[in-house]
Known about the structure:
This protein is an alpha+beta fold and 157 residues long. The protein contains 7 helices and 4 strands. The radius of gyration is 19 Å and the shape is flat. It starts with 5 loop residues before the first helix and ends with a helix.
Amino acid sequence: NYRMTELQAAVGLAQMxxxxxxxxxxxxxxxNIKNGIKNNNFYSFRKFPxxxxxxxxxxxxxxxxxxxxxDLFKILVKEEIITKNLPDAYDWHFAGTxxxxxxxxxxxxxxxxKDLFPVSKDLLSRSISIMIFIKMKSKQIKKxxxxxxxxxxxxxx
Length: 157
């Protein structure tokens, strides 16, 4: 049952009036972080197909290796930068773990689900997602940029 109450609908309508403002702020914060990263050869950023809309809720990028992603994730957590290590989201977001669904599809019946999506598994294993917020302060943005630049410089020496 996905019916909402009148109160939930009223809150939703009020929030929709702010959507353009919210997206504009998130885009600004996202762009400031992405443009502040000096070594764009170390990080490869997620691409968006033409005609799609981006909400700028997260800056997602890939690193050269799984070890780099794990090491950076530890640093981001230590620095209290809100992040997600995408391999940790495997169980919920990655079809390569959905044996309960995939195994019911006839063409996949005798196959191991964990072996079906090697490219996706590789990308997720070396991906990081940094959350972007509407009310990010300049200090927070500078800290994220500094941490990412220092990590890339250290790894590319």
